[in-house]
Write a sequence for this structure.
């Protein structure tokens, strides 16, 4: 995870420009003052990287939605003063999710700033006691948390309230595109499914799948049929390249090869690699 390794990994894979981000897993469970200082230090370091390597990097801030006004002020400073280009958040933090009322000011801020928000899984979440084998926390538990987080954002009306929000689901949103049909029928069947539990309060005016089409997905999925499912769900215009490297440096060439071998035309691959992320970042290509 040293910067030289980050640069070498991308250069050797033929990646000209890349996002530098950090899910700051190390602040989980820390007292707020310590967690906040860790986030401040990341923002400072991210700005240092951006200044040192402006031709190769686009650097992102990080924050805790719903953490309070001090987190909002720090994020605004990181974007306006440091020149960072977006923000990465965890799909949950210490058991709290970004759809909660306390986080609505965060979504107002990022919408006003017009920056992309990457949603990445936390280091671990619920159900860990069932997954302490075969790295199941990483391979199953973490994407499950992200899928749940994005589903909550959809049904709790975040897109209804902030329709111009630039949300990016890392790792294809943890499988949200595969379960969206279930989210739709839960909404559409209404009282007919009362035995499955309540659907209230009603905070959306369309089926969840309609809001999902506003979201972007990155391709760090390791399985090309899953990428095709996302393309067919949110559309090619909302797909961006992702690799999970670093720290998993060997995955970068594999991630690139996966997109290059998708059964789509070359113009659509160029959208994934270049045009769509450039549009998200508000830059010319």
């Amino acid at each position: 995870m040293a910067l030289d390794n980050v640069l070498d990994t991308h250069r050797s894979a033929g990646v000209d420009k890349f996002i530098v981000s950090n899910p700051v897993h190390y602040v989980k469970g820390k007292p707020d003052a310590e967690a906040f200082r860790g986030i401040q230090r990341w923002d400072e370091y991210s700005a240092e990287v951006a200044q040192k390597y402006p031709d190769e990097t686009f650097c992102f801030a990080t924050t805790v939605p719903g953490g309070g006004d001090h987190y909002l002020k720090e994020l605004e400073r990181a974007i306006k003063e440091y020149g960072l280009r977006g923000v990465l958040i965890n799909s949950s933090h210490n058991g709290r999710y970004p759809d909660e009322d306390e986080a609505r000011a965060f979504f107002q801020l990022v919408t006003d700033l017009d920056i992309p928000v990457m949603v990445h899984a936390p280091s671990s979440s619920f159900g860990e006691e069932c997954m302490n084998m075969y790295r199941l926390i990483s391979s199953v538990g973490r994407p499950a948390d992200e899928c749940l987080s994005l589903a909550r954002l959809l049904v709790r009306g975040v897109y209804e309230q902030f329709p111009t929000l630039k949300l990016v689901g890392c790792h294809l949103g943890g499988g949200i595109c595969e379960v969206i049909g279930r989210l739709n029928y839960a909404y559409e069947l209404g009282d007919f499914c009362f035995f499955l539990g309540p659907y209230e309060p009603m905070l959306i005016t369309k089926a969840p799948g309609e809001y999902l089409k506003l979201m972007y997905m990155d391709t760090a999925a390791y399985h090309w049929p899953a990428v095709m499912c996302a393309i067919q769900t949110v559309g090619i215009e909302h797909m961006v390249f992702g690799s999970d490297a670093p720290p998993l440096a060997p995955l970068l060439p594999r991630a690139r090869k996966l997109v290059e071998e998708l059964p789509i035309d070359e113009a659509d691959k160029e959208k994934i690699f270049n045009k769509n992320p450039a549009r998200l970042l508000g830059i010319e290509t």
